[in-house]
């Protein structure tokens, strides 16, 4: 551990223990430098790290202050998945579409949203880069970069991976229209209709929709809110069900927020390679870490070219620009051909604009501020869940991203809760959205990626009251197939 990390951890321990309380002013950078015999830059790095974790914040011309301390948190969830070995058809589209449609209005409190607030991103600066990129764009680039994409942008993406310790070459990268296109292209490259694909339980509903659209079946394997997919159960599924592929999020999984330890990622890649099963890795939240460094993707441990890694700028820099990429390993040619026949190319001005932004610097500064904001908002939401939700409620403790997974006591039905919340202009993502078998009826995913204010605090209080009312007056749970726009109050 580096010197600034040791210093940051010591201060963090003082904050969590209560020795330093919320609102306390930290010693000045020069005081710490003198008393500890370390450089000023070391102290600044430690304070920047604590800011990224949401523990302290700088006030202009005043110094650094503690913003979050030994806040009590709800207990962590325990995944009680009934999923067993065996592949099952997927039918989630109607449920997912109806719930997303019911939460589209700007008047709805966006707790069900899949995106953080657009106000967190440097959109004016991106717009200037987009204009510069269009003005200086080589006309021939509109032809040369059709597939796999802008050479300059691919080089910048590869450089970021290299800086984090993952060996990536520009020619490994295929630029796509967002991560979802990358994921779908990779899925198509390694499967045929009727194949079975391993997914986590719970899993991102977009993965389930992709399986349903391609006529694939799902093998659900339980995932832990802290460490990710259960490797023992994964090994059983690989041996019993002979899947064609595996689709996972190893960093800050949606909806749990789990982060697989590096040792687990290495074991995961080795296990899948032993069975010859490709891994489609969704890593769209990897840059949104609260700790000292970006967690490595599973791709970093890939020796066989079996990991098809996908990411994008949509969640961390440029929502709406729809620019993602794939590192498809040994399947690069198949993915590039599918891209060519499906959508041909990503808009050249968007690629040139993002290239201009990345080349001018400032991206990492933006990410530090974004991580800091998300960490603070996670603390606020966790504390609100503890205050307002019924006794016995559990919540995850993600180390990155912007989703909180909440497990209510068994008497709460979150499909009913979602409909009642919708009538009050509150968006909620109920647990059955995240399971091919309609599990997790007493769970919800909450988005803390929007500015914390009285409106969101009030929405959390309302959800807690609605859940408590269900526990006081239990009622039969509706069938999973029932939600439609009219039933959801849309």
TrEMBL record:
Keywords: Aminotransferase, DNA-binding, Pyridoxal phosphate, Transcription, Transcription regulation, Transferase
Family annotation (SMART domains): HTH_GNTR
Lineage top rank: taxon: Bacteria
Domain HTH gntR-type: from-to ranges: 1-69
Pfam families linked: Aminotran_1_2, GntR
GO molecular function, one term: pyridoxal phosphate binding
The family this protein is said to belong to: In the C-terminal section; belongs to the class-I pyridoxal-phosphate-dependent aminotransferase family.
Name of protein: Aminotransferase class I/II-fold pyridoxal phosphate-dependent enzyme
Organism name: Massilia cellulosiltytica
Lineage, uppermost ranks: Bacteria, Pseudomonadati, Pseudomonadota, Betaproteobacteria, Burkholderiales
